[in-house]
Design goal:
Elements: E1 25-29, E2 48-54, E3 59-63, E4 70-74, E5 78-80, H1 81-95
Antiparallel strand pairs: 1-2, 1-5, 2-3, 3-4
Length: 96
């Protein structure tokens, strides 16, 4: 499952090694992640997440707007909101 990668059209926060974006870019979580270290952020599928900065090692600094918690999450665990909608439309057409 591929994540967002370094698509600059989605915002500077998603470019690995890019500048910190305090507001963040809204993403949708597609897989749960259990934090094992204190700098990691536990997430569950389908919640909204804000990505503030991406790193070249495949992790991103994120925050959960609902809980105000902040931590790092692997980039493969979330997608852009627009991408999630297009995947859902495809699945609905495929099932019918």
């Amino acid at each position: 499952m591929a994540g967002v990668g370094g698509d600059p059209s989605l915002g500077g926060a998603l470019v690995p090694g890019g500048a910190l974006d305090e507001e963040g870019v809204e993403m949708r979580v597609v897989r749960g992640f259990k934090a094992t270290l204190e700098d990691e952020l536990a997430i569950v599928p389908f919640i909204l997440l804000r990505v503030h900065q991406s790193y070249e090692d495949g992790w991103s600094l994120c925050s959960n707007p609902g809980t105000k918690e902040r931590g790092v999450v692997p980039r493969t665990f979330f997608f852009s909101f627009a991408r999630c909608r297009s995947v859902l439309k495809f699945r609905v057409r495929f099932v019918r």
